[in-house]
């Protein structure tokens, strides 16, 4: 009897074959190009320090500030812009500054306020001349969103502004006062609870803003929560390290180390997603260095109730703000320029180096995709049907986008910008159930219709043509994103390099492909999680993200790229499902 022949080991498929279409060797070699940008990012990082502390301790009167906070919140609980309460609160502010001998200049204008209509707003500006033309701005909004439950909303910021001005009051019969080195501008803004409208007007129209080298926003200083610094803007500008480190150091000295600062992931999402909430965002968008000192979340009401005011926290942050102002004023020269920075621990990564790294990360994917496209042409694969299928899926997403904008025209979502809409005011304070249900039903109808009219696709082994088309489309989308906002590539890159392995995993178990596909969704998921945490949105984070698109805060070209990315994601899911079913049928036949 002839002996059994030894079973030969299973050979690994060659690169470029339908079973292994992606050239992973080429991918590894192209990835070596990232070493240069990584080294540039590391060696251009800086370790900035804070400016020296003041020689004298702060003289901020916490008792007087608490009394003013309670008085403003109790006497004028409704300070919605354009109402009689807002006018009385402005008169109250001028009356409290009258004994200090400093003029208050009023700037009035009419504008549309989301959820209120077209009303008249008023900024109140107090200027303390200094020996230098450079300007330091301290700003706090005095309005709120109305109602007795919102009475304390930033009343503490306005009271702290009054107390800081008192240090530069005119005293004595000779009219002497403390003369600062820089020109100090104290701004009591209007419309702060509705997108920081007053701060936006001052930043873009005031000649004083053009000379600003530092801006400190005071927002809710008497909340019981940990104080925090906010750096976000709806442009790719960030606070310079000297301003950021100085304010952080002075506040930590007063609070004993308690201070929350945005982590590197939150900062990266803020750079990638053109979004910023608060008055510092308006100044940063205008190219003015700014930070915001706050205690409560941007959509919370932790300081809304007068009984919830924390006198100890108010005193700590008031003294921290005063010490920060003195440190900044004592600096001989402050940099008035803004640039993108990413603060990681005690280091600051330069934005241009980070953009270089993100743009370079596209190169390996581009090389492999072009190689795959060339192989498809040489093998004579039919790619046109896959392009038609992708085009039809993109048409579905465009139809859904049209439904969403129709809901915005009906008032269910904000429309108009580019200021980010308030997250705790209509129409984004809750899910619009009727509009959401109507959009969902119509979108489902569109989906069923598109499924019935889906074109027939070639039956080549493995669907290599489909993956080739999807990867090519992803590359085109990524290039557009890199041009519009390079930082936004952080949302796209995970999908590029996760989904690139899908053609190689068709012979594996189905859950492996599903897991890798899920990894490609990490970028948008992280953006929603950070947005939800930053604004305390919870399940309303997707609604607010859509609101940023309909309001115009997110550039329309990025919104179109998001729709194209979603269409590619859907087509890849279809290919993955079809491939798994085909592999399963083949295994059953064997």
Structural features, described:
- With 590 residues, the protein is an alpha/beta fold.
- It has two domains: 24-42 and 353-589, no CATH class; 62-343, 3-Layer(aba) Sandwich (Aminopeptidase), CATH 3.40.630.10.
- Helix content is 50%, strand content 10%.
- The chain has 21 helices and nine strands.
- The chain has helices spanning 24-31, 35-43, 62-75, 84-97, 155-166, 197-205, 207-210, 241-255, 264-272, 279-285, 311-330, 351-360, 362-379, 384-409, 433-452, 464-484, 489-499, 510-519, 522-535, 541-550, 556-589; strands at 105-113, 117-128, 135-141, 183-189, 212-219, 228-230, 290-294, 341-344, 347-350.
- The strands form two sheets. Strands 1-2-4-3-5-7-6 form a seven-stranded mixed beta sheet, sandwiched between helices. Strands 8-9 form a two-stranded antiparallel sheet.
- It is elongated, with a radius of gyration of 29 Å.
- 45% of the residues are buried.
Number of strands: 9
User: How much of the polypeptide forms β-strand, as a percent range?
Assistant: 5-15%
Instruction: Output the CATH topology of the largest domain.
Output: Aminopeptidase
Low-confidence stretches: 581-590
- How many domains would you count in the coordinates? 2
Average pLDDT, rounded to a whole number, is 85
Question: Regarding CATH, which class of the largest domain?
Answer: Alpha Beta
Secondary-structure element pattern, one letter each? HHHHEEEHEHHEEHHHEHEEHHHHHHHHHH
Global structural class: alpha/beta
Q: Termini, distance in Å?
A: 28 Å
Q: Give Rg in angstroms.
A: 29 Å
Described by strand count, sense and barrel closure, the largest sheet is: 7 strands, mixed
């Amino acid at each position: 009897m002839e002996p059994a022949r030894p079973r030969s080991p299973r050979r690994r498929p060659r690169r470029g074959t339908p079973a292994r279409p992606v050239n992973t060797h080429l991918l590894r070699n192209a990835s070596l190009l990232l070493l240069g940008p990584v080294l540039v990012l590391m060696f251009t990082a800086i370790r900035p320090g804070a400016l020296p502390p003041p020689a004298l301790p702060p003289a901020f009167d916490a008792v007087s500030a608490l009394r003013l906070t309670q008085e403003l919140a109790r006497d004028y609980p409704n300070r919605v812009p354009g109402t009689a309460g807002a006018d009385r609160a402005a008169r109250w502010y001028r009356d409290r500054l009258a004994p200090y001998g400093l003029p208050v200049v009023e700037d009035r204008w009419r504008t549309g306020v989301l959820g209120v209509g077209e009303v008249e707003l008023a900024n109140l500006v107090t200027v303390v001349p200094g020996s230098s033309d450079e300007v330091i701005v301290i700003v706090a909004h005095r309005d709120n969103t109305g109602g007795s439950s919102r009475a304390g909303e930033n009343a503490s910021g306005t009271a702290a502004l009054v107390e800081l001005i008192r240090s530069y009051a005119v005293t004595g019969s000779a009219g002497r006062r403390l003369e600062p080195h820089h020109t100090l501008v104290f701004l009591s803004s209007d419309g702060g609870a509705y997108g920081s409208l007053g701060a936006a007007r001052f930043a873009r129209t005031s000649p004083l803003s053009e000379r600003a080298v530092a801006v400190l926003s005071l927002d809710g200083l008497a909340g019981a929560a940990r104080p925090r610094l906010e750096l976000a803007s709806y442009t790719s500008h960030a606070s310079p390290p000297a301003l950021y480190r100085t304010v952080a150091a002075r506040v930590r000295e007063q609070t004993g180390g308690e201070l929350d600062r945005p982590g590197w992931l939150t900062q990266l999402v803020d750079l990638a997603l053109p979004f910023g909430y608060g008055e510092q965002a308006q100044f940063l968008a205008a190219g003015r260095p700014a930070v915001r000192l706050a205690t409560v979340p941007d959509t919370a009401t932790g300081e809304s109730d007068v009984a919830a005011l924390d006198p100890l926290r108010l005193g700590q942050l008031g003294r921290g703000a005063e010490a920060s102002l003195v440190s900044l004023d004592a600096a001989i020269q402050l940099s008035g320029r803004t640039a993108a920075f990413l603060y990681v621990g005690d280091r600051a990564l330069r934005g241009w180096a980070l953009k270089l790294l993100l743009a370079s990360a596209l190169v390996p994917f581009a090389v492999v995709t072009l190689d795959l496209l060339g192989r498809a042409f040489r093998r004579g694969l039919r790619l046109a049907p896959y392009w038609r299928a992708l085009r039809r899926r993109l048409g579905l997403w465009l139809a859904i986008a049209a439904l969403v904008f129709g809901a915005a025209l009906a008032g269910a979502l904000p429309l108009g910008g580019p200021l980010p809409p308030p997250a705790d005011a209509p129409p984004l304070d809750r899910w619009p159930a009727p509009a959401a249900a109507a959009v969902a039903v119509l979108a489902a109808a569109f989906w069923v219709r598109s499924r019935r009219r889906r074109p027939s696709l070639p039956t080549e082994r493995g669907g290599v043509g489909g993956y080739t088309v999807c990867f090519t489309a992803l590359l085109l989308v990524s290039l557009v994103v890199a041009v519009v906002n390079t930082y936004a590539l952080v949302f796209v890159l995970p999908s590029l390099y996760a989904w690139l392995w899908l053609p190689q995993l068709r012979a594996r178990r189905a859950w492996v492909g599903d897991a890798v596909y899920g990894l490609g969704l990490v970028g948008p998921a992280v953006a929603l999680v950070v947005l939800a945490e930053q604004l305390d949105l919870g399940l309303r984070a997707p609604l607010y993200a859509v609101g940023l698109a309909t309001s115009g805060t997110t550039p329309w070209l990025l919104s179109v790229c998001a729709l194209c990315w979603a269409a590619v994601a859907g087509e890849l899911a279809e290919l993955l499902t079809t491939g798994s079913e085909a592999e399963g049928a083949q295994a059953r036949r064997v």
